[in-house]
Amino acid sequence: MAIETTSAGILGLIAIMALVTLATRFGGVFLMSFVPISPRVESFINTMASSVLIAIIVPMAVEGDLGALAALVATGLTMLALRKPLPAISAGLIAAAAVRYFL
Predict the structure, then answer these.
(1) What is the pLDDT of residue 5?
(2) Is 77 exposed, middle or buried (0-12, 13-18, 19+ CB in 10 A)?
(3) Are 51 and 43 in contact (CB under 8 A)?
(4) What is the mean pLDDT of each run of 10 residues along the chain (103 residues)?
(5) Smallest Cα–Cα separation from 64: which of 101, 99, 89, 94?
(6) pTM for this one?
(7) Cα(95)–Cα(101) distance, rounded to whole angstroms?
């Protein structure tokens, strides 16, 4: 199956991706409405969020360039210092942009 890379084709792809995203989000909420939230299930949900974050960060730290490493360090240090995600994300973006611009 091939979709043309015209404006209509690109907009069609974006619409398909949006529908798939919505279906997975709403589907997950729908399925979880049938699961009683016990302490064990709550622990699983909290742990799953951390494991997904680690699965994204570790490959970037191992195989990423100097900009990615600077972003990880800046984000981590800012998060430890301020304990607020928005300034930490901003610091990581600025660090990556600075390293990639100047090096």
Answers:
(1) 79
(2) middle
(3) no
(4) 80 94 94 93 88 88 93 96 95 97 95
(5) 99
(6) 0.60
(7) 10
The DSSP code for 35 is S
Q: How far apart are CA 54 and CA 91, in angstroms?
A: 19
Q: Report the 3 state secondary structure along 44-97.
A: HHHHHHHHHHHHHHHHHHHHCCHHHHHHHHHHHHHHHHHCCHHHHHHHHHHHHH
Long-range CB contacts (within 8 A, 24+) of 67-75: 67/95, 67/96, 67/97, 67/99, 67/100, 67/103, 68/96, 70/95, 70/96, 70/98, 70/99, 71/95, 71/96
Which whole-number Å values give the CA distances from 72 to 42, 60, 75, 80, in the listed order? 28, 9, 5, 12
Q: Phi and psi for 3 in degrees, rounded to 5?
A: -115, 130
